[in-house]
C-alpha cells in the first residue's frame, strides 16, 4: 500500500489518544474513515477534527465478538470495500498476579487480545477482496518485555505480537494481497493510565504520575510513525525512543533484561 488516498481505513478506539491521532493523520492523506469507540462523545469530537473527509462513526465494544463481526459486515456494506484495519482499542490494568481478580484479567484479555484477534479475522476476507489490504495491530513495548504488576497486560500484548507475526507469515506464504504490521508503542501521552484499573493495594495516583513522567511521545507523533510504517510495509513498528531502547535491550540481553527491570520496579512500584 504505497498510497492511502481514497483507501477505506477502519480504526477502533478512535475516540481519543492514538486512535484519534491516527484518524486525523489518515484523513490528511485522503482516507475514507470508519471510526469506532465505546465513547460516543469522544468519537464525535474525533470526526469533527478530521475535516471534510468521508467519515462514518460506529459505536463498538470490541470485547464482543458478535459486535465486531457485525461491524465488519456493516463497514464493507457502507463503503463498498475495506483496505486498512487498525485494531487500536485497548485498556490497562496494574495489579500483581496474586491480587488481580479474574474479572479484571478477563476484561483486559477480552479487549486487548480478543478484540484484536476478532477484529483481524472479521475484516480479513474484506481486506483480501480489496486486492490491497493491510492489518495493523497495536501491541506495546509490554509485548516485548515482561514488567511486574503488568502480567495481564503483558499476556494480552505478547499474544497480540505472536498472533500478528504469525498472520504476516501466513499472508506471504499464501500470496494474499494483505500486509500485516505489529505496532509497539512506548510511553504515549494518552489517557490510558488515568482510565486503567488498579489492584486494591496500588497507589493509583503515584503510578499515574510516574507514567506521565515516562510518556515521551505525543499521540500525533505516534500516529505519524505508524502511518509511515504502514506505507513502508514494516513488520514491526516501534513508536518512540523508549520503544527502540527496550527493543534493543531485549535483543542484546535476552532474558537477562529481567534484573534491570526488577531494579527499576523496586524503586518505582514497591516503595
TrEMBL record:
Cited SUPFAM superfamilies: NAD(P)-binding Rossmann-fold domains (SSF51735)
Family matches, as InterPro entries: KR_dom (IPR057326), NAD(P)-bd_dom_sf (IPR036291), Sc_DH/Rdtase_CS (IPR020904), SDR_fam (IPR002347)
Pfam families with a match to the protein in the record: adh_short
Record EC number: 1.-.-.-
Keywords: Oxidoreductase
PROSITE patterns attached to this UniProt entry: ADH_SHORT
Molecular-function annotations in GO: oxidoreductase activity
Ranges for domain Ketoreductase: 7-191
Family per record: Belongs to the short-chain dehydrogenases/reductases (SDR) family.
Name this polypeptide is given: SDR family oxidoreductase
Native organism taxonomy: Bacteria, Pseudomonadati, Pseudomonadota, Gammaproteobacteria, Pseudomonadales
Amino acid at each position: 500500500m504505497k498510497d492511502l488516498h481514497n483507501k477505506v481505513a477502519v480504526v477502533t478506539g478512535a475516540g481519543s489518544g492514538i486512535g484519534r491521532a491516527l484518524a486525523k493523520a489518515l484523513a490528511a492523506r485522503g482516507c475514507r474513515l470508519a471510526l469506532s469507540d465505546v465513547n460516543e462523545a469522544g468519537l464525535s469530537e474525533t470526526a469533527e477534527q478530521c475535516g471534510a473527509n468521508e467519515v462514518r462513526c460506529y459505536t463498538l465494544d470490541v470485547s464482543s465478538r458478535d459486535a465486531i463481526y457485525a461491524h465488519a459486515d456493516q463497514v464493507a456494506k457502507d463503503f463498498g470495500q475495506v483496505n486498512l484495519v487498525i485494531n487500536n482499542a485497548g485498556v490497562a490494568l496494574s495489579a500483581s498476579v496474586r491480587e488481580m481478580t479474574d474479572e479484571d484479567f478477563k476484561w483486559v484479555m477480552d479487549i486487548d487480545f480478543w478484540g484484536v484477534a476478532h477484529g483481524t479475522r472479521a475484516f480479513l476476507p474484506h481486506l483480501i477482496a480489496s486486492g490491497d489490504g493491510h492489518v495493523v495491530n497495536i501491541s506495546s513495548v509490554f509485548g516485548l518485555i515482561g514488567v511486574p504488576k503488568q502480567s495481564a497486560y503483558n499476556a494480552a500484548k505478547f499474544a497480540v505480537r505472536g498472533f500478528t507475526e504469525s498472520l504476516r507469515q501466513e499472508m506471504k506464504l499464501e500470496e494474499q494481497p494483505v500486509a500485516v504490521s505489529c505496532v509497539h508503542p512506548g510511553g504515549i501521552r494518552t489517557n490510558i493510565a488515568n482510565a486503567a484499573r488498579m489492584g486494591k493495594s496500588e497507589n493509583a495516583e503515584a503510578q499515574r504520575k510516574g507514567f506521565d513522567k515516562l510518556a515521551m511521545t505525543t499521540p500525533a507523533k505516534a500516529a505519524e510513525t505508524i502511518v509511515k510504517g504502514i506505507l513502508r510495509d514494516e513488520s514491526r513498528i516501534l513508536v518512540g525512543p523508549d520503544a527502540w531502547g527496550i527493543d534493543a535491550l531485549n535483543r542484546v540481553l535476552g532474558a537477562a533484561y529481567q534484573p534491570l527491570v526488577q531494579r527499576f520496579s523496586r524503586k518505582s512500584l514497591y516503595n
